Amino acid sequence: MTAAIEAVELYRFYRAGEEETLALRGVSVRVDAGELVAVVGPSGSGKSTLLACLAGLDEPDGGLVRIGGLRLSHRPERERAAMRARGIGMVFQTDNLLPHLTVAGNVDLAQRLAGRANRPYRDRLLAELGIASRAGALATTLSGGEAARAGLAVALAAEPAVLLADEPTGELDDTTEGSVLALLHSRARAGTAVLIVSHSPAVAATADRRVDLVDGRVRDE
Ligand SMILES: Nc1ncnc2c1ncn2[C@@H]1O[C@H](COP(=O)(O)OP(=O)(O)OP(=O)(O)O)[C@@H](O)[C@H]1O
């Protein structure tokens, strides 16, 4: 089966003056449709770097990234951005909402950028996430839990095959974390490939599979 998203032998170096950091040292990861994978590891182990490369926001120095069998890495930024808008939803640590737009407006914009305007789907999504009543609210007026759900709605706006999430439950209380996790699992069951970077034991414990990163390498079981 073709992986929904895969990293093959990724390398990423950072150079700051004399100092060189090997953030990724040959990392291979795949996530299939319908799977929820948790990437865990100590601070500085390369998790954010891996996520940025998987999303095509950063270019690896070696190795490659494919989404749905198509190479994403080593392409002009414009092409990567187009592939990302259509195929990848992202949830960031800080929310990805534009403050001057409403919740519905934020979702509409993400759909338009992907060329996939679809109001019935948008409304279903907001209802499924339990924030339909906040559709007309400006992003700045949301509570932390509402903003997390709205961010997830933006990430899922264009029905991406792949969902990448960086600490999606980092700022949430246990109850809200549980419901956001349940939503991510239900998206995975519906066929989305979900990869979550997290420090949370609850996220790692419920994942279908767990990938441990240590010093820029995947630790073998
Ligand atoms: N832009 C950069 N320039 C130089 N070094 C960097 C840069 N970004 C990351 N690094 C270094 O690369 C290594 C991996 O960083 P990364 O942010 O991927 O780790 P992480 O596992 O996401 O950490 P955390 O859990 O603290 O967010 C670290 O040693 C970090 O200092």
From TrEMBL:
<keyword id="KW-0813">Transport</keyword>
<dbReference type="InterPro" id="IPR027417">
    <property type="entry name" value="P-loop_NTPase"/>
</dbReference>
<dbReference type="InterPro" id="IPR003593">
    <property type="entry name" value="AAA+_ATPase"/>
</dbReference>
<keyword id="KW-0547">Nucleotide-binding</keyword>
<dbReference type="Pfam" id="PF00005">
    <property type="entry name" value="ABC_tran"/>
</dbReference>
<dbReference type="InterPro" id="IPR003439">
    <property type="entry name" value="ABC_transporter-like_ATP-bd"/>
</dbReference>
<comment type="similarity">
    <text>Belongs to the ABC transporter superfamily.</text>
</comment>
<feature type="domain" description="ABC transporter">
    <location>
        <begin position="8"/>
        <end position="221"/>
    </location>
</feature>
<dbReference type="InterPro" id="IPR015854">
    <property type="entry name" value="ABC_transpr_LolD-like"/>
</dbReference>
<keyword id="KW-0067">ATP-binding</keyword>
<protein>
    <submittedName>
        <fullName>ABC transporter ATP-binding protein</fullName>
    </submittedName>
</protein>
<dbReference type="GO" id="GO:0005524">
    <property type="term" value="F:ATP binding"/>
</dbReference>
<dbReference type="InterPro" id="IPR017911">
    <property type="entry name" value="MacB-like_ATP-bd"/>
</dbReference>
<dbReference type="InterPro" id="IPR017871">
    <property type="entry name" value="ABC_transporter-like_CS"/>
</dbReference>
